[in-house]
Specification:
With 362 residues, this protein is mostly beta strands. Helix content is 12%, strand content 41%. It contains four helices and 27 strands. A hairpin with a 5-residue loop joins strand 23 and strand 24.
Length: 362
Amino acid sequence: MSEGHAPCPRCRRVRCCILAAPALLLAYLLLWPVDADPLAWRPPTPPAVFRTPDSDLSDIQLIASGAGPEDVAIDAHGRLYAGLLDGRLMRFDHDGSSAELFADTGGRPLGLDFDNDGNLIVADAIKGLLCIDPAGAITVLATEHGGVPFRFTDDVDVAPGGMIYFTDASWKRGLHEYPIDFIEQRGYGRLLRYDPAAQKTELLLAKLNFANGVAVSPDESFVLVVETARYCIHRVWLSGPRAGESEIFIDNLPGFPDGVSCNGDDLFWVAIVSPRSPVMDFAHPRPWLKRAMLRLPRTLWPGPKHDAHVIGLDLDGRIVTTLRDPTGERFSLITSVEEHDGLLYLGSLTRPAFARIGRPDR
């Protein structure tokens, strides 16, 4: 009877490495330090059926602008303005057929709105709250509040009376770290108000999970602020017996709400930048799983889905109209909606164009 051959030392080492690899990977995913402390949060169950769209978003006009026209603003002459990923603010004629450089912030312009003097007020994620006069000269209005710098100045709305309402999406995470803010759920976002006359900034609402879009009601009795990472919108009362109080305006949205704007009359438009992520909803109540996710390469984290979705809310937070193209083939990742002269202007997180479409009948 022949004797079996003992495995060579090299084979034994290879076998040990193969057997040890899963244990090492598991130890890395569970124990490796991360610069975040995720909080357990149980998302509401998504609505089984959401409102059937009243209009299709697949047939819209695209206006070439450059990458990432997050928001669109329209001046008193009907000209269009959009801020791009590289810091430029471009100005277009009313039909988008010609473009010129209006200003360059050197940062990342996001939310845009005009004040009563024709100045463009800009929420720049890197540079803070800015004012750009009609000639393109830039003035910095605010970069911090209470000694805490803005890390992600996000959206802005100028009230009819001149007060400027804006958001700092996160005082901890900057422009390129925002996915960590979504995963962590620690409430680093803020809603603020800037008084141009007093040149002072006031905190209105804190502990928001990615404070995003902001819009003032037509009578200035309240302001809305989007809490993107919690699928909801808050209302903060500015006047009346409940002044200073806040409440949920609408909750359990079917996706991540981004920009919100008022048409000046009876409607708030909300951009749903992407549908909710089942993976993230499953992970949120399990901090250990979110820590493991943070240890993975960022390319493996759940990302936005290319979808086009806009909803219209009345002044009481009821959904009264929707527009959607779930394929997102024509236009997607919508970050803002602005109504002007019967048209809706749509910004996008990454697309090289903004878009417009006729307002649907209700």
